[in-house]
């Protein structure tokens, strides 16, 4: 592993005692740099390693299907870890309290955790660290090029981040080491695996995961295999058409850390018979756009408010705040997908029915919410509420960046001036009609919910 992926965030004297990996973002056994780092630390010290996950009671706007996807996936990860001789400990409660309490009880000598710039995770860490006596290392296993390495400031747009990422890719896009079974696990001073009945009770508590996305590392890999066969070859031509799209549908797996973006990139690069346009077009989304979103949240404290907008967008939106709207949508209309726009309704119903909305439509969907809301702040709050509660991949840095792009011109440039949007880019129904078969999409989804 490249040593710059890991960062000491809590400098405490070295302790004797097991290494604990507090997993909270990269919820997988395979291709996980934090786990690789923790295994290395344990081996170097001759200590046992365990992985701990703390299930918080509430998480931002997450709903039962999100929790179901998470816990079903965790069960697979727990058994993969246990198969390697690495105990998996499931905690419940407020992570800021439950994790330090566990670390004390386990007499942890060193702690490893996932890097995550989102607010709730920063809060957990800020509250937990003063309660931890051991050194804590943070590992960036989410990004191919670690976010703190690629840039120390908020990047203006993809154009400014892209060359920095491309320059560092040869250094960071390396193969993952094979995971070896761990001999020392039996000595770990904590109860054995969660009994099967406890897992069953936990899974029952949250109900079934969304049918469209079977959870877990194996299902994520199966979805990647399907994409490599059927989507990637068409990606250059068909990624932006919501009717029979070529996109990967990997975002829920990437969001819940059940799949590594670096694994996806390596397999895309190894795939045969793929055009340069398809391969580069996909890697642009998977690496550059995805890591631009991480950069945005890392360097923008209020990434989910209009304070995140660039000055030109704030000014132009304020200038047009009193423009008459073609329609002022109610929350109920939006929730149910019953606005006067048949395409918007169909997109919303796709989201309601499957927990996923096609990428091009997400932009159109958010832009129409701007058009139908009294001001940008209301539009942003509505986009966040709907996206984060309904989309399985919601509450993700990609979503915060995508919504800030749609509503407030983040990572974009000024466009010709229009009503309501000012110089923030707008998107229209007629633009959609020119792009794909809107009638077919509406027919497919208009009844679904
Ligand atoms: P593919 O086209 O197959 O792309 C592969 C991967 O690249 C995606 O899974 C994703 O991780 C990444 N990616 C693709 N497009 C983008 C992008 N524009 N920005 C950052 N990363 C990207 N993405 C989320 O993961 N969660 C969200 O909550 C979310 N909300 C969004 C809301 C709005 C208003 C907008 C405009 C975009 C949002 N996106 C979000 C980004 C993007 O639309 C989705 O990542 C993508 O549609 C997921 O489908 P896919 O996996 O089939 O994508």
Question: Could you characterize the architecture of this molecule?
Answer:
With 449 residues, the chain is of the alpha/beta class. It contains 20 helices and six strands. The chain has helices spanning 33-45, 64-83, 95-106, 119-128, 147-150, 158-172, 196-206, 217-231, 235-238, 251-255, 261-270, 276-299, 311-319, 331-336, 342-354, 359-371, 376-390, 397-408, 429-435, 438-445; strands at 6-10, 19-22, 49-55, 88-92, 110-114, 136-139. It starts with 5 loop residues before the first strand and ends with a helix. Flavin-adenine dinucleotide binds next to helix 10, helix 12, helix 16, helix 17 and helix 18.
Lay out the secondary structure:
Blueprint (H helix, E strand, L loop, with lengths): L5 E5 L8 E4 L10 H13 L3 E7 L8 H20 L4 E5 L2 H12 L3 E5 L4 H10 L7 E4 L7 H4 L7 H15 L23 H11 L10 H15 L3 H4 L12 H5 L5 H10 L5 H24 L11 H9 L11 H6 L5 H13 L4 H13 L4 H15 L6 H12 L20 H7 L2 H8 L4
Parallel strand pairs: 2-3, 2-5, 3-4, 5-6
Antiparallel strand pairs: 1-6
Helix pairs in contact: 2-7, 3-4, 6-12, 11-12, 12-18, 15-20, 16-17, 16-18, 17-18
Bound molecules: flavin-adenine dinucleotide.
The site of flavin-adenine dinucleotide has 29 residues, from helix 10, helix 12, helix 16, helix 17 and helix 18.
- Structural class based on helices, strands and sheet pairing: alpha/beta
Would you tell me the overall average pLDDT? 95
Number of helices: 20
DSSP strand count: 6
Helicity range: 40-55%
SS strand fraction = 5-15%
- In N-to-C order, the SSE pattern is EEHEHEHEHEHHHHHHHHHHHHHHHH
* Terminus-to-terminus distance: 45 Å
Biggest β-sheet: count, sense, barrel?
6 strands, mixed
Based on CA atoms alone, the radius of gyration comes out at 22 Å
Low-pLDDT stretches are none
Q: Strand arrangement, largest sheet?
A: 1-6-5-2-3-4
User: Ligands bound here?
Assistant: flavin-adenine dinucleotide
C-alpha geometry? globular
